[in-house]
Specification:
The structure holds two protein chains of two kinds. Chain A is of the alpha/beta class. Chain A has 26 helices and 34 strands. The longest helix of chain A is centred in the C-terminal third of the chain and has 23 residues. Chain A is globular, with a radius of gyration of 28 Å. By secondary structure, chain B is of the alpha+beta class. Among the domains of chain B are: 237 residues, 2-Layer Sandwich (Nucleotidyltransferase, domain 5); 62 residues, no CATH class. The longest helix of chain B is centred in the middle third of the chain and has 28 residues. Classes of the chains: A alpha/beta, B alpha+beta. Chains A and B meet through helix 18, helix 19 and strand 21 of A and helix 1, helix 8 and helix 11 of B.
Amino acid sequence: MMARLTLDEWLARTLQNRKFMEAVSAVKIAPPQEGSWKAIPGWVHPQLRRVLETRGLRNLYSHQAEAVELVRQGRDIVLMTPTASGKTLCYNLPVLQSILENPETRALYLFPTKALAQDQMHEIHGLIGDIGADIKTYTYDGDTPANARQAIRKQGNVVVTNPDMLHAGILPHHTKWQKLFMNLRYVVIDELHVYRGVFGSHLTNVLRRLLRICRFYNAAPVFVCCSATVANPKSHAEALLERPVALIDKTGAPSSARTFILINPPIVNRELGIRQSALTPARKIAGELIENHIQTIVFTTSRLNVEVLTKYLKDRFVRGKPKDDQFVTGYRGGYLPNLRRRIEKGLRERDVMGVVSTNALELGIDIGDLDVCIMAGYPGSIASTWQQSGRAGRRKGRSCSILIARSNPMDQFIADHPEYFFSRSPEHCRINADNLLIFLHHVKSAAFELPFEKGERFGAEDLEEALSYLEEQSVLHRVGDRWHWAAESYPADEVSLRTVNPENVVVVDATEAGNHRVIAEVDWDSAFTTVHDEAIYMVESQQYHVDKLDLERKKAYVRKVDVDYYTDAMTYTNVRVIDTFDSSRRESVIVEHGEVQVVRKVVGYKKIKFYTSENLGYGDVNLPEKDMHTTSYWFTVPKDLLSSLPYSQAEIIDGLSGLSYSLHHLAAMILMADIRDIDRCIGDKSGEWFVRRGAGRRIIAAGSGGEGEGPVRIDDFDPTIFIYDAYPGGIGFSDLLFTQHDNLLASARMLMRNCPCSHGCPSCVGPTLEVGMTAKDAALAILNIIASEQ
Amino acid sequence: MTVRDRLQHLTGEYSGKDGKQEKSRDQVMGDLRRRIETIMARRPDVSAGPVILSSRGAFALDDVVEGEEIATDMGYFYRKIRRLGGNHIHGFYTVDEARDIDMAAAALLAGDPAIAESSVDDIIFIDTETTGLAGGTGTVAFLVGLGWFEGRNFVTEQLFARDFSEERALLCRLLDQIERKKVIVSYNGKAFDVGLLATRFVMNRLPDELSAMPHLDLLHPCRRLLAHRLENARLATMESEILGVLREGDIPGSEIPRRYFDWLRSRDARLLKEVFHHNHLDVLSMAFLAVHVARIVRPNLATSGVEWRDVLAASRLLSDRDDIDGACRLLEGLILSCGDGNLAIEARKELSMIHKRRDRWSEAVVHWEIILNNRPGDLFAVVELAKWQEHQVRDYRRALDMVERAFSENPGMPEWIEAALRHRRDRLLHRLRLAKV
């Protein structure tokens, strides 16, 4: 048997390998960092100090020392230091100290997921056990048994929960939590970067409610926030908490040397612009590393990919061994908690040499430090990339991160511009806590918790006007200068913090008459495109035919079928400008952002054959239009400029579509948003004309008029590309895109130019089957006339 | 655009094109008025009373609900008091009879010995009407009905918050009244009313004197003792089936929150008449149910109106509470009173098992044999006798006789019993063979 290679040896050998290096688009080596330490402060309780010392902690990292000192002084802080830099001690230490000084002290910890809450419990239980004091910590979430809840409310010194539970389970019952609120000294919000977009906008409102209740009980807790890398930790924390926050972002933890390798798999079909799957190199590299007992974590972008890759690796390493051998294993949400705990332990103790995971392991679950991190696909943001990458990295020696690009525009942009990627600051976290719908939901919940008094403030909006609106809606009742909740419902149940529309459509399998079963739930917005009448809906690769979508009862009745096609809904979107907030002229185009009305309608569907993607026919769908007011960024191209280009009408439309495709993807990348958080449309500003996909290719249709009007020509209007918030009321992406207009267009140009495909592919302007053969050229030509090169 | 305009845009309430404009305040009130008229039209029996239109033009509260405004340091609230004399009849009982609550029995039912030390005059009956069932801090008790015995009378006092601003004064009065009493009696009050009031006290920064008081929640005993033969354990069911009260002009509990919200907006007091009536009857029925359930567990007093099968249920409750003597007393009384009827046989079965658990075999055997005399071949009795012969007397022959008797006299017995019996027979045959060797 060959001697095993160390990571250094493997790297040296691999980076010499010409075949391997052909696919490598960049290698970057970061030098090791020295640590910086400070003595444990003198005020730390001797019992606590002893426990730290038995754990080998005679000193604190400089950032830990700074953090505990500020928290001790009652300052609100946000801490941004890398993975595994001992962030949890920054809040556990002052919290435990304060409980030792006064056993009545209470602290509330918020984590975005139950798994993280469990992990944190594990850690703090360890500390408390060693201190030997009577300090009670509990998790309080949907799984907490009813008979344990009373004890938690009355006795828990540290209550670990999530924002959803705080919103629906704790705040509306604050009188039962009297003891907690009267003695609340600390609120810890970990993984702060998760709270962006809709979720973050909700959290700010939940915190506004929390603080109202704290005021009622005369409590003024100190907030301790922790975040992974983001561009704006301080302003994000201040936006969430709506108060000044001190930033600590200089780590004192040492780090090892790190090699970062960026791989772009070879093109296998130039015509269609298809590259080798990112899973192929991931499997090969992970296999080699694990064989050498170099502990490796592979992140994939979907649960399915976790299972596929795990199977490949298990086939290689655990064949013939007992089935539960965890030398290599998968890890994702959906695994049972004790299996997850076993895997985490195996990783810490290095019994597990390889793990394939979704981003479930990206957040701060303690799995020790691994040697290599492979990312099969760009995780969607710079911040996530560094976060995942941070899973590998021992205090000493070397670690390595490998990012393998897929075929989509974001991944390809990065593979083509490694220098841009490495020099880029991570993304901004944005929220819009005063999104009116979100705000209104929480005003209701807040009124349920405590009547509003005249002159009270709740966010930046005009509260009194919202209150009188709710009074007219007959949910509030005003007596003198107070507004009381006056309805039978429980408002916190009406809104979920994480989804856009809390209403769901239930999918009912009616294959067997008399034995109807619910097989899935689809959120309200997707229901229109996925479970319309006659659609083929798939669950775990079983096909179901939708017999009837009953919107009133919120049910879709389906039955099992076995057909050789799937369906793809055809929708049209029509955007009309209601109000322009700001406007500027760039070259010959007008760039604006403001409020828009978006009308969406599913008009039909295509039947598409599996494997060949052959179009087997069309059907009509008759569903109501959906009308939404939101915010948008847009720019308008003068028609005269377009008509000077050497392309036909149809080709120009395709070019604009291709351009909007790449802008949509790049905007998501810049915003650190999910691609579904924003959407796109081409039309004119009045909503009179818009571009929609017909049965064949794109056509221009009238916004309000019916069918059958004569063909409209592109030179009848000035086409406008809209990139808008997909949430009613908007989440605040639009003004950022407005300021990023030049950057966005320049990125699109780089992306298209450097894309090796001949006519367009999913990596740049979209697949040629959809946008036609000239879209890429036309899109570039349009870019040339609307944005000059720097 | 104002916040309101923007909200109307976002929620789709406003649609300029269709000309569907926002509802004006007048329209809202118009809708409300129409709804009130519909409610009144539906219930002519109640609104038929002499309702006088007050000078203010609406139906004023004191014209519809006879009561008075009470001024306190904490503000105002509205109160209605009624006194029912000893001869007042509510279903099968008079107030004089209802007053005769056996406090020892009440203590037993509540599982709280402190109650036995109190007298009937220490009891306060409580029932609340609230703005919803959702619980949490946004639900308010706007009407608190109290009841107590005073001399030969039963007094009810209904405290009503005409608006949210009167809640504090109402709660203070409630605290004053509670201070004079020692025991709470409610129906589902442990799970609902007391918890809700506890929240209201905190919200108004008042002490919660209620939660720690001895409390007999009648729901639990009613469920155990009575619901076994009824459709459900709701107070309304108990009232009609047990007390024989037929409510007239009542309103379903689920409509009450809506009535209060409508009252807040319209100030039309007709909406409240039935709510006060409903609450008053609830308090009254509670008091009368209390005497009834207490009689079931202590039937040695005047036992009219008590069903013997409820006594059987009571014996099981006592036995679960480890009050074995109490259970035996009930069962023996039952056997004496019911002769050899089915209920007596059920009682003998219960009693025999109590004896068996306490190793009082001879007493148990007597019961089994009596059962067998009355019901030849009774499966329970033969099987128990077979077990006794096999394990205590160790007369395998007789035990086998019993098993055979069970088989021959119970054709079509359930399969699992048959299997167990067959198993017993095989074992007995085996033992007999061993004995011969």
